[in-house]
Amino acid sequence: MRSLNDTYSETPTVLDGSTFYTYATSTSESKNLTKNHNLRAEIEANLDSNNFLRIIPTLKYGSTSSSRISNIIQTGFLHQNRTGVNSSINKTPQIGTSVFYQHIFAKPRRNFSVQADLNSNDQDQESEQDTKIIYYLNQAETEQRDSAVNRIIARKNLQKNYRGSFTYVEPLNTNTQLELNAQVNYNGYDNTATTRNIVNGGPDHIIDSLSNIYNYSFTQGRIALNYRYGVGPLSKVRFSVGITAVPTLLSGTKVSLGTTTNRNSFNVIPIARFEYLWSRQEKVAINYSGNAVEPSFDQIQPVRDVSNPQNPIVGNPNLLSTFVHSVNATYNNYIANSKLNFNVNLNGSMTENAVISNNVQIVDQSVNLPTPVYITETRYLNTNGVYKIGGNYSVSKQLSDRKYNLSFSGSASYDHRLSMYTSLKNINTVQTFIERVGPRMNPNDWFEINPNVSYNYTKSDNSLPNFRDTKTNTVALNVDGKIYFWNTFLFGYSASKNYVSGISANITSNPFVVNMYLEKELFNRRGRLTLQAFDLLNQNNFVNQDVSANGTITQTKSNALSRYFMLRFSMRLQKWSGIKGKNGRGVMRRGDGSFM
Questions:
Q1: What is the DSSP secondary-structure string of 289-344?
Q2: What is the pLDDT of residue 524?
C-alpha cells in the first residue's frame, strides 16, 4: 500500500509566561507490505448432561515491511528543517489457548464455570533511520547549522498474558440470585530497544543513552460479589448491587537506567445497575461502573529517559492510580401499533487523579549553537477536573408496511480536558453536535435508496491566553442504495457532497465523493465476486482536522481513500446454526456479557 500525506500543524509553547507557536508543514510518502496468517480451532465437548468443555487454540503470524520518506519544515518558535528516510521490518508471531469448563447443578440456575487464557506475543523489529536536521539561526534563513543522524534501532518485545477466572451463581429464590466472580490477570513485558550509529557503512557499538531495556509485569485481581433481583422472565424491576475488590501489583526493572519499581494498590469499586420494564418494548436502564488504572511503567520511572532526544521523559514515582467513574442511562420504546421507535442514551464520566503531561521547554545541550535550541521535556502529574458528558438519540417511523422508514438521529458531547505547560494549566474544552435525518426506501424487492442529510459542528476552546480556538462545520448530502437484477446480480452505490468550513488548509472545500460496486452471486449464493470503484471523481482530498488536549491543531490530507478499483472474491464454507443452550436450557451470560 502506498500512502501520501500532507500535514500542517500549529503547536503552542509556553516559555517565561509567554506563548509562542511552532508552525510545521510536512510531506511524507509511505509504502507498506503486510502479510497476516491466522489459524483458529474450536473444540467443544458435552462431557455429560451437566458438564461442558471448550478449548480454543489460536496461532497468528504477521509481517510488515515499510519505508517512509518525510520532509518537515518548522518555522516560528522552532525554526528548522528535517528530512529523513526510515525503513523497517516487523515480525509478530502470536500463540494462545483458551479453555472453558462449566458445571450445571440439578438446582435450576445454580452453576459454576472456570476459564483460563494463555497468550504469548513476540514482536521483532529492526529499522534504519537516516535523518538530516538543519537549524536556522535567524528568520532570514541566512545562517544555519546542520546535524546528520544515521542509526539502526532494533526492538524486541515479548508480551505474555495469563488470565484465570471463576464464576459461581447461587439462586436464592425464583427472582433473585447471588453471583461470585474472581479473576486474576497477569501481563508480563520484556522489552529491548537498542540504538547503534552507522559508521563506515556498518553499525557501531550500542549507544546507551539512546537505548531502552526494561522488563516489568502488571498483575491485577478482581473479586466481585453481586446481588441480582429480577432474574425471572416476568419481572418488571431488575437491579444489581454489589462490590468489587481490585488489588494490583506493578513491578519491574529498567536495565538501561538502573532503576527498579515495586508498587501495589487496592481499590474497592461499587456495582450498581437498575432496569425497569413497562413491557418487552419499553424499558429504562441506569448503570454505574468504576475502573482503576495504574500509571504506566515509563510514567513512574524517576530518571531522565533520552531514548528520544527530541522528547526526553522524566517519570514521577509519586503518581497515584487513576479512577474513572462512569454513568450510563438508556431509554428504549417501540410503539408497535404506530411502528414508531424511540431511543435515548445519556452518559458521563469523571476521572479522579488523571495522569497528564507537563511539557517543559529546555535547551538542547547536544546542539552547540550561539542561539539556544529548545526541546520539549515531558513530565507527569496527577490532577482532577477531567470529565466528559454526552448523549445521543434516534427516532424512526415505519410507513407503508415497512417499505419506507424515516429516521432522525443526533448526538452531543462536552469534553473537559486538561494539559500543563511549565506548570501552567490549560483547560481544553471540545463541544460536538451532530444531526442526521433521512428516509430508507424499499418500494419493492429489487430496489433500495437511502438519502440523508447530516450536520457536524465541533468547537474547541483553550483557557491559556493566545492559544488558538477552532470551530468547524460540515454539512453533508448523502445517498446510498442497491439495485438487484437478473436474480444473482447486485449494483450498489454511494455518493456524498460535503460542505466544509473552519479548516483553513482545506484544498477542496466541497468534495463530491462517488463509490460504486457490481456484485455477482455464485455457488448457490455462498460465493460473491465483487468489482468495486472508489472515489470515481477523485475528490476525496479534503483535510481532516484534529485538536489535541495540549492545544496542538493538526490538519492532514491523505490519499489513502482516493480513487482506486478493487476486485474481491468471498466464499462462505461454514455451516452455522447459532449458539444453543445445553440440555434445552437458554444461553447464559456472565456480567461482562461473555457466554457461560
A1: EEEEEPPPTGGG--SEE-SSTTS-EE--TTPPPEEEEEEEEEEEEEETTTTEEEEE
A2: 84
Task: Give dist(CA 250, CA 565) in Å, integer.
Answer: 49
Beta-sheet strands, E only, within 445-582: 447-462, 470-485, 489-501, 512-522, 527-534, 544-547, 553-558, 564-571
What are the mean pLDDT values of the chain's consecutive 10-residue runs (596 residues total)? 77 81 85 88 92 95 89 84 87 93 93 95 86 75 71 86 95 94 92 82 74 86 94 88 92 83 87 92 93 84 77 87 93 89 96 91 76 84 95 93 90 94 89 95 91 94 88 92 92 90 63 90 89 84 71 72 80 61 48 42
Task: Give the cell for residue 332.
Answer: 428504549
| C-alpha–C-alpha distance, residues 63 and 91, integer Å | 4
pLDDT value for 86: 86
Q: Is 134 domain-assigned?
A: yes
Q: Is the pTM of this model over 0.85?
A: no
Residues of the domain holding 22: 1-150
Question: Could you tell me how many residues make up the chain?
Answer: 596
Residue 552 is assigned to a structural domain of this protein: no
At residue 143, the pLDDT reads 62
CA distances, 468 to each of 78, 317, 460, 463, 554 (Å): 18, 33, 9, 10, 12
> What's the total number of domains in the chain?
1
Question: How far is it, in rounded angstroms, from Cα 315 to Cα 322?
Answer: 16
Is there a contact between 269 and 292 (Cβ–Cβ < 8 Å)? yes
Neighbours of 318 (CB within 10 A): 11
Cα separation, 380 vs 358, in Å, equals: 6
Q: Work out whether the CA dihedral 304, 306, 310, 311 comes out positive or negative.
A: negative
Q: How far apart are CA 499 and CA 126, in angstroms?
A: 44
Rg, Å, the chain Cα set: 29
Across 207-321, where does the E strand assignment appear?
212-229, 237-254, 259-277, 282-293, 304-305, 313-314
Whether the Cβ atoms of residue 571 and residue 526 lie closer than 8 Å to each other = yes
- On whether residue 259 sits in a domain, the answer given is no
pLDDT at 584: 46
User: Does some domain include residue 175?
Assistant: no
> Using the 8-state DSSP alphabet, how is residue 595 labeled?
B
pLDDT for position 234: 81
Could you count the other beta carbons within 10 Å of the beta carbon of residue 271?
20
